[in-house]
Write a structure and sequence with these properties.
By secondary structure, the chain is of the alpha+beta class. 17% of the residues lie in helices and 32% in strands. It has helices at 15-18, 38-48, 105-122, 156-175; strands at residues 8-9, 23-31, 55-57, 63-65, 86-93, 136-139, 199-205, 209-211, 216-217, 226-227, 230-240, 248-256, 264-265, 269-272, 275-285, 290-298, 305-318. A six-stranded mixed beta sheet has the order 1-4-3-5-2-6. Strands 9, 10, 12, 13, 14 and 16 form a six-stranded antiparallel beta sheet that branches.
Length: 319
């Protein structure tokens, strides 16, 4: 687990030791709808609920950390921990009882410093999360999958601050150059006759994963290979450990909506044995659809096979 050196450590137990590990890919900010200090927020998590955030921030800039950033905390619903092991780092920030006030200057400064450290420590990319599982920075109401029944958190004033002050300053300090306050727009539509230049997909992930008879979605940098509208020529290379004779590995690409729901799969490709296997797909992705990849391993005794490494590569074009 990782602890931010500039925060006061107030470790929550048993959660800190009992909850599963995550690979931090997002930073999500909240308002706690109470004018609490970081210590009072700790006491609330400890004594009154089985939920918690990684950090708490008071009006005066008092910052505490309750759980290591590589351990799951439960403030973000679907972003707490995903099947691929990725998850979000969360912070609750003091607010008035209507969550209508802006962050104080001291709070803004602490959010910026923490945001820079998370980029440096965990390589969280310097962008506002484009989808619920897209790595980057965000606030609680940005994506519905981050809240069980919907939320206005952290409030209109703080959303405006996040986009216009906090996030741009995180990027400026992390890179020594200014950044846009909005996610980058999609590329302008072009056709092959216009001579559009391709871009390169090149993502890899070395985390070991046991693959069994159930279809398992894979993350490379993240679970999304492509976002439509887009034309693509994609190759996925998987490396498995030695497998028993008779093992069959099946992989398939599939499309979902932008929330990862309503999947539609392409036909699976079948390979035999362990070792390296490649899967390819050439096609066009409609607007508001994501391309993903999943795999399963069928062994004679039903035991899983360990996936050692995965790479996704290929060219793509604006559709």
């Amino acid at each position: 687990m990782a602890w931010y050196p500039a925060a006061t450590k107030m470790e929550l137990q048993p959660e800190s030791d009992s909850q599963p590990a995550i690979r931090p890919t997002q930073f999500i900010v909240h308002s706690i709808v109470a004018p609490w200090t970081a210590k009072r927020t700790y006491e609330y998590w400890r004594d009154s609920t089985n939920l918690e955030s990684h950090f708490g921030l008071g009006y005066e800039g008092d910052l505490a950390q309750y759980i290591g950033t590589e351990t799951r905390a439960d403030a973000n619903a679907g972003a707490n921990r995903r099947p691929d092991g990725s998850g979000a780092v969360s912070i609750e920030t003091a607010s008035n009882t209507k969550a209508s006030d802006p962050w104080t200057d001291a709070q803004v400064e602490q959010l910026v410093r923490l945001g820079v450290w998370l980029h440096q420590r965990h390589d969280i990319p310097l962008r506002i999360c484009r989808t619920a599982d897209d790595p980057g920075y965000g606030y609680h109401r940005l994506h519905s999958a981050w809240a069980v029944s919907g939320t206005a958190c952290p409030g209109d004033a703080r959303v405006k601050q996040f986009r216009e002050v906090v996030f741009p300053e995180i990027v400026r300090r992390a890179t020594n150059k200014p950044a846009p306050t909005q996610p980058a727009p999609a590329p302008a539509e072009q056709s092959e006759e216009d001579g559009d230049m391709p871009q390169l997909l090149d993502e890899a992930n070395p985390i070991d994963v046991p693959i069994g008879a159930q279809w398992t979605g894979l993350a490379f940098n993240d679970p999304i290979l492509h976002t439509g509208p887009r034309r693509h020529d994609t190759l996925v290379h998987l490396l498995f450990e030695d497998a028993p004779d008779g093992t069959v590995v099946e992989g398939r690409f599939y499309l979902t909506d932008t929330q990862g729901q309503n999947p539609s799969g392409y036909l699976p490709t079948r390979h035999r044995g362990g070792g390296g296997h490649q899967f390819t797909l050439v096609g066009q992705i409609p607007a508001d659809r994501h391309l993903r990849f999943e795999v399963r391993a069928l062994t004679p005794d039903g035991a899983p096979v360990k996936l050692l490494h995965r790479v996704a590569s290929g060219l793509y074009w604006a559709a």
